[in-house]
Amino acid sequence: MNRFFKLNKIILSCATGFGLGNLAFSCSGGVLKKFPALPQKWSGGGFLGTLLGFGFVFLGFPLTGLFGFLTLFLVTCLSTFIADRAEKIFEKKDDSKIVIDEIIGAFWSVAFFPLDQFRGFNLFIFIASAFILFRIFDVFKIPFKSVQNWKGGLGVMADDLLAGFSVNLLLRIVLAVR
Picking from 11-25, 65-79, 84-98, which range would have the lowest pLDDT averaged per residue? Predict the structure, then answer.
């Protein structure tokens, strides 16, 4: 097996959220089809990618301080490269199997919040609110639909990054008013 093939396997594994994007794609005609009230945008790869992103948040992915910023910045840059390569491998613009954009967008939606200050149920409510708001912003592309037309990995990532930034700002406003 040559190096190029191995690199492509690693890229596709990361781009699809360790296979979640493929799982949702393969289930769209089976398991998920049994829930017609849930269109694929709400139950497909993007949904599963967002769940994975918030799962990483619960596991303590560093999202605060200078270390958190540098980590998030580097992971975002790497993810943009991965999304670009995955798009070329799949030979399709923003293939629905690519979910790394939702994972990174989920990170940005709660970045720089001191999650350790939230306790128990309050943490659950905060993360659930961020999750729901992020999915709404992501599905409806509020107000960033045109950035998805950008070429390459940046076009894949931009709408989810902007959705994450918007959710982050909205949550900060809500918490400040509260």
Answer: 11-25
CA distances 88 to 38, 125, 133, Å, are 29, 38, 30
* Amino acid (1-letter code) at residue 70: L
Range of the domain at 48: 3-177
According to DSSP, residue 51 is labeled H
pLDDT of residue 165: 95
What Cα–Cα distance (Å) separates residue 114 from each residue in 3, 59, 63, 76, 128?
41, 14, 9, 20, 16
Handedness of CA 83, 88, 91, 93 (dihedral sign): positive
Percent share of the chain, pLDDT over 70 = 86
Buried b (16+ CB within 10 A) or exposed e, 132-154: ebbbebbeeeeebeebbeeeebe
CA distance 39 to 66: 39
Count of structural domains within the chain: 1
